[in-house]
Amino acid sequence: MAETADELTIDYEEGGILTTKQTDKMILSKGAWVTILFKYQSWNKAEQSYSEDKYTIRRFQKRDGKYTPRSKFNITNAKQAKLIVDTLQDWMK
User: Fold this and answer.
1) What distance in Å separates the CA atoms of residue 21 and residue 45, rounded to the nearest whole number?
2) What's the start-to-end Cα distance of the chain, in Å?
3) What backbone torsions phi and psi does residue 53 show, to the nearest 5 degrees?
4) Which is deepest, 1, 31, 40, 64, by most CB within 10 Å?
5) Alpha-carbon torsion 13, 16, 21, 25, what sign?
6) Is 6 helix (H, G, I), strand (E, B) or coil?
7) How big is the CA angle at 71 (ends 68 and 76), to the nearest 5 degrees?
């Protein structure tokens, strides 16, 4: 478990293969609750390659000095990500 927001990652290894590979992250908020936007790729066992970029927003809560995952929202493709960005930009006009 991570003790700081900067240490938090979604990298996940299974059977010696990095099945979830974090490629970037942006910390959106810090404190007792941390919100992070991650960019990642998933390992496709059948194709023996990584997927196109995917995105996820994760929330972590700090308890007893360690961050624990509490919730997540996965953005499954670039089209959905662009729609979210466009909508937010429109709302913020």
Assistant:
1) 14
2) 40
3) -60, 140
4) 40
5) positive
6) helix
7) 125
Place of tokens 């490629």: 23
Amino acid code (one letter) for 6: D
Are residues 51 and 74 in contact, defined by beta-carbon separation less than 8 angstroms? Answer: no
Hey, is 35 helix, strand or coil? strand
Cα angle 2, 53, 15; round to 5: 55
Helix, strand, or coil (residue 80)? helix
pTM (global) more than 0.85:
yes
Report the run of H or E that residue 55 belongs to, with start and end. strand 54-63
Tell me the per-residue pLDDT of 35-77, one tens digit each, with 9 for 90 and over: 999 999 999 999 999 999 999 999 999 999 999 999 999 998 8
**CA neighbours within 13 Å on the CB side: how many for 47?**
8
In contact, 19 and 42? CB cutoff 8 Å = yes
